[in-house]
Amino acid sequence: MKEKEQASGSAAGPARSCSTCGDTSCQEARRKDGESDRDFQDRQALQSRLCRIGSKIIVLSGKGGVGKSTVAVNLAAALRLAGKRVGLLDVDIHGPSIPTMLGLEGVSIRAGGDGMVPVDLNGLKVMSLGFLLGNQDEAVIWRGPMKMQVIRQFLKDVEWGELDVLVIDSPPGTGDEPLSVCQLIGKLDGAVVVTTPQKVAAVDVRKSITFCRRLQVPVLGVLENMSGFACPACGAVTQIFRDGGGKKIAEDMNVPFLGSVPIDPNIAVAGDGGRVFLEEFVSTPTAAIMRRIIEKTEESRTKNRKK
Ligand code: ADP
Questions:
Q1: Total of domains in the chain
Q2: In angstroms, what is the span from residue 124 Cα to ligand 1's centroid?
């Protein structure tokens, strides 16, 4: 309820510009040192849209292929099922997989009066860079500044309207691309850091947590994905790699540990088939694990909001 009030309370009708907002204390309305006219206007245009969103959560990972998009999709879908107004934004320029995971491949984006209209999937508003990249291989050959320009333009042009929560599927790593996304979005309510149990992933997850700290993004928690294998017949989990790595890092770095999701063939089946795992495999033990993790994420987010 509080979130709804906040989201609608900050809205003053359709698309506003920051200059017409009455909040004189808002830092976003001030020009940053060295910011050009164009950058300032772009940032204001983006902020005027983002002001209408109650909470922004980013899903990060040290590298690709660890299940970041899977987590983003299921988190967004679960929040939607809980009755919230939710947006899902896929800015993973190297592998925008959300269209495939939601069965939205080949969908064309409609232009609204003031930008691009997200796709409405049973009430979940979805926008992905994948909708715009005709050929996904193209992004791979773009130089850094070009990628930043695409990300910036994309973020600025989406007509979200009012939302309670926006879930953002970030580019992987801790380089320029996730950095640009975090800086452009401005105040984030928190980050979910996704990792895998192998030792090599430990370095990456520490980097992701340090990245969040530098940018003053609260870490909602670490999620260890692909942790053991869930038997399709009985759901019992067998450990394949060493386990407990994610938990240990979370403890060492003093951030919440959200839990471990096993490798479950049904997750891959759902993702490849364009369906949401939590909706398709509701009564499996892995779905129960995932729901508990999402509850913990929400607890962490609520706690941070009260601080
Ligand atoms: P990322 O966004 O980190 O690149 P994805 O979410 O796209 O990773 O996941 C990569 C692949 O692994 C996808 O095919 C997805 O369905 C699969 N996957 C992710 N998590 C699991 C899991 N726990 N069990 C089985 N398959 C998984």
A1: 1
A2: 21
In a domain, 226, yes or no: yes
Asked whether residue 31 is domain-assigned, the answer is no
- Best residue among 61, 69, 70 to mutate for probing ligand 1's pocket (most ligand atoms within 8 Å of CB) is 70
- Is 23 a domain residue? no
Which structural domain, as residue segments, surrounds residue 187? 36-306
Question: The domain that contains 156 carries what CATH number?
Answer: 3.40.50.300
Q: Tens digits of per-residue pLDDT, 233-272?
A: 888 888 887 667 889 999 999 999 999 999 999 999 999 9
Of the listed ranges 72-86, 119-133, 228-242, the one predicted with least confidence: 228-242
CA of 45 to the centre of ligand 1 (A): 34
d(CA 49, CA 135): 28
Mean pLDDT (whole number) for 103-126:
93
Question: Of ligand 1's atoms, which has the minimum distance to the CA of residue 101?
Answer: 16
From CA 260, how far away is CA 249, in angstroms rounded? 13
**pLDDT class for 108, splitting at 50, 70, 90?**
confident
- Asked if the structure places residue 28 within a domain, the reply is no
Q: How confident is the model at residue 13 (pLDDT cuts 50, 70, 90)?
A: very low
Q: Give me the residues paired with residue 163 across strands.
A: 53
DSSP element (H, E) containing 9? helix 2-9
Partners of 119 in the beta sheet? Answer: 126
The CB of 274 under 6 Å from ligand 1? The reply is: no
**Distance from Cα 64 to the centre of ligand 1, integer Å:** 9
CB atoms within 10 A of CB 270: 21
